[in-house]
Each structure stands twice: as C-alpha cells, then as structure tokens.
Design goal:
The strands form three sheets. Strands 3, 4, 7, 8, 10 and 11 form a six-stranded mixed β-sheet that branches. The protein is built from four helices and 13 strands. The chain is an alpha+beta fold. Helix content is 17%, strand content 38%. The protein has one domain. The longest helix has 14 residues.
C-alpha cells in the first residue's frame, strides 16, 4: 500500500482529502472523503449515449472544511453564486484524474473518453455540499456494452451510489438494460470488471478495486 506525507493542502477534492489527515503527519491510502452519487446516463434521439450527469453529495466533515473562508451573506446558507469559485476550483483540480470517471466501450478501455464538464455547480443543504455536473463524451457512443467505473485511483475518496436513486438511463433505447455494481458485490461480472478496470491511470493505486460501476447493454 502506497503511503503519503500530508504537509499542506489546497481546497480541492484531492487536497481536502489530504488536509483531513494533516494532523497525523502521514497516512496510508484509505478513504478520507466520502461521496454519495446519483447519476444519469444521457442518450440522444438516435440512441447514442452522449454523457453522464452526476450529483455528488459529500460527507459533513469535507463540507465543513471546504466552506471555510467562503463569503456568504446569510448564516448557514450558501447560494450557487457564492459557491461558484469552489466549484470552479474543484472541477479544475480533478481534471488530471479523468474526473474520476473511466469508460470501457465494447470491451476497450477508453483513455480520455470525456470532454471537459459542463453545467457544474455546488449546492448546500442539510450540512452537506453536493456537486452537480455533466460529463459529455468526446463522441456519441453507440455500443452493445458500455461500462463506466467511478473511483479515485489512489482511494483517498470513496465513491458510492445512493441507495434509493443510484443511476438512471435518460431517453435510452427500450432494449438497453442497466446493471449497477457496488464495491464488494460478488457477481461474475464484478470479477471480470475488477480486472478490466485496471486502467493505466489507476495502475499506481488501489482505488479501482473499490470502484462503483455502471454496466449498460444495448443488444
């Protein structure tokens, strides 16, 4: 297991994960930020997948830390406009990690499958921050099998799907089916994906072993 020395941090998704362990001096890779996801895979009228829309809700500790120094007019209330600089900083910071989204199309891992995110913003409710954004595919995807793994390669951030509303297909062809894979599932498809998501970007870390995955089949 790869270890780090957390001496300083920026107010970013990765930086905040390090900041939360700064008092210990050093720590081995393990989750320090927890994200609960609601996601939608978006389809065009021609049946091609065009992107994935995310809502990532962060744990209370991360949210409280991230809000330090954010100017706001009303106590305990943060508007989208007030949180806009934080959203911009975070989206920029996770670009080098493929925005924590990794795609495999008809069995082939796609490096850089997504364009830069659009329509991104933070909202704040019930002591937690939620990051909303859409990741468009660089080119519309028409595939029999589309697999999307969402994880932090270094496993400082734990991504898990919401229990009630994890993933939806929006305007997908009627024949398309959706399978959701959570870390720890033991189905045969999970065993296959544990190997298939050893992407080059993740080869230096352990996060791919704990990936949340979306499997879409369109025969």
């Amino acid at each position: 297991m790869r270890c780090i020395n957390a001496k300083s941090a920026l107010v970013t998704l990765v930086g905040l994960a390090l900041a939360l362990i700064v008092t210990t001096g050093s720590a081995c890779a393990h989750p320090d930020v927890w994200v609960t996801m609601k996601s939608e895979v978006i389809y065009a009228p021609d049946g091609s997948a065009t992107g994935i829309r995310h809502a990532w809700s962060f744990d209370d500790t991360f949210s409280a830390y991230a809000l330090q120094g954010i100017e706001h007019k009303q106590n305990g209330v943060y508007t989208r406009e007030e949180l806009a600089p934080l959203a911009e900083t975070n989206m920029t910071s996770i670009k080098g990690n493929n925005y924590f989204n990794f795609a495999r199309i008809d069995g082939e891992m796609q490096k850089g499958a997504f364009n830069e995110p659009i329509d991104y913003w933070f909202d704040y409710a019930d002591s937690g921050l939620t990051l909303h954004f859409t990741l468009p595919f660089k080119a519309p995807v028409r595939a029999r099998n589309l697999e999307i793994g969402i994880y932090d390669p270094e496993y400082f951030i734990d991504f898990g799907f919401d229990e009630r509303e994890p993933v939806k297909l929006v305007n997908a062809p009627a024949q398309c089916t959706l399978e959701l894979v959570r870390p720890g599932d033991a189905a045969p498809s999970v065993q296959r994906l544990n190997k298939s998501f050893q992407a080059p970007e993740a080869s230096s870390g352990m996060g791919s072993h704990f990936a949340s995955k979306v499997l879409i089949s369109c025969p």
